[in-house]
Amino acid sequence: MAEHPSSLCSPCSFCSPVPLSMRIIPHVSLLPLVTVTTASIQNITIDDANGDEVTGEVPSYYGNGWNARSASTPCTGCVSQPDGQLFWNHTWHDQSAAYSPDASPPIPSNFSFRFSGKSVWIYCTLPGSDIKASTRLQFYLDNNAEPDSTFDYVPPDGSTYAYNQAVYGTTSLLDGEHTMLVSNLVSQESLWTLLLFDYAVYQRDISPNATSPQSEPSTSDAGSTPTSTSQIPTSIPSSYVTATTAQPYGNEDGGRSSPTAAGVRIGGAVGGVFAAAIAIGILSWWGVRRRRKRKSLEMADMTPYPTATQKPPFASAGIARSLMTTAPALEQQKAPSPTSSGQSTRAVTDGTVLLGEMARMREDFERLRSRIDGPPQYDHVRQ
Q1: Superfamily the domain 40-260 falls into
Q2: Which residues contact 182 (CB under 8 A, 6 or more apart)?
């Protein structure tokens, strides 16, 4: 391909002598950073019995009537008999309270836990209609006197236990240390209430700059499970909830979703978008560069060259003779052969065209000289 003058190339980065690989590598190397920085949210589970799987801190239970239950140790004297295999870690805490018009208002039974994050969800099992109990809960954040939310559930006729139901959820907290207190309320409207607490989930930032929870590990000998990063389940039917200010996030089939990294999925998606954008940018840059080169070649090809059909205007025989004397010298010039540095093939083509033009000029000169040097023409022969 022909070498083009520098004037045909605009002074831009596309003409930079930096190799293509060196221009691509800095952009591609950013992809791992994108994925790492976006995968920074982790879901941590607080089990009713085993506690926080990171800090080991176990929830505190206050009041009377609490029963620590598990699938392996059934409670024969308890009214509620749910399937223990459907609870997280096969454990739960059972607390029931009854309203009596002759007795003083009962003191609510509570449980509380601490967490460090910006979102939290609380999961319980809701009773069926066979035991004639409802679930009425109030939630207090960070020792506030007013409840942050109230959850009321009355089981419809013919219903059974609903497992893995989120009775509270919020995502609008400031990232930091928080305390949650849950009360099991009893009133004249709800003669008997039942609380079956299973577990809670909170979200924390696990990026390198995030601070770790400051809670001290519990002295309990209960072992913690591997760190959970499960998704938040879907909500229970709104017809089950008579009054609530918190959006529930339950899973009606009772099965807790398998541990999966939600933050990693988000990071992978964002990293894929960045990778696609960088790839498109590289392809666009390469296409523009090729178009500019092609345009430069087309501009060079538009340069006019003399053709064999054009005849030079000879003013006199003297001019023709002067051209004739230079023609042999030009004819003897040969087309340059390519050198080790790679000369253009256009030089060979131009030399061939020039030699052809000189040959055509020599033929025209011979015809012109024959007319000038020939014998004079007479109109008639002398007698």
Answers
A1: Galactose-binding domain-like (2.60.120.260)
A2: 110, 111, 112, 122, 137, 138, 139, 140, 168, 195, 197
At residue 303 the predicted structure's pLDDT band, cuts being 50, 70 and 90, is: low
Say whether 96 sits in a helix, a strand or coil.
strand
Q: How far apart are CA 321 and CA 341, in angstroms?
A: 40
Distance separating the N- and C-terminal Cα atoms of the chain: 72
Distance CA 38, CA 265 (A): 9
pLDDT band at 239 (very low <50, low <70, confident <90, very high): very low
Q: Please, what is the Cα angle at 319 between 314 and 323, to 5 degrees?
A: 100
More confident of the two residues 210 and 281: 281
Q: Residue 49: which of 272, 149, 194, 199 has the closest Cα? A: 199
Q: Which of 80-84, 166-170, 364-368 has the lowest mean pLDDT?
A: 364-368
Check the CA dihedral 106-186-91-219 and report its sign.
negative
Domain coordinates of the chain in residue numbers? 6-33+271-301, 40-260, 317-373
Residue 322 to residues 317, 327, 371, Cα–Cα distance (Å):
9, 9, 17
- Whole-model pTM: value is 0.50
Long-range contact set of residues 216-222: C-beta below 8 Å, sequence gap at least 24: 216/55, 216/57, 217/55, 217/56, 217/57, 218/51, 218/52, 218/55, 218/56, 218/57, 218/58, 220/50, 220/51, 220/56, 220/58, 222/49, 222/50, 222/51, 222/58
pLDDT tens for each residue of 161-181: 999 999 999 999 998 999 999
HSE at residue 202, side-chain half, CA atoms within 13 A, is: 27
Q: What does the pLDDT read at residue 249?
A: 39
Q: What is the pLDDT of residue 79?
A: 84
| Helices and strands, counts by H and E, the chain | 5, 13
Longest dimension (CA), the chain: 170
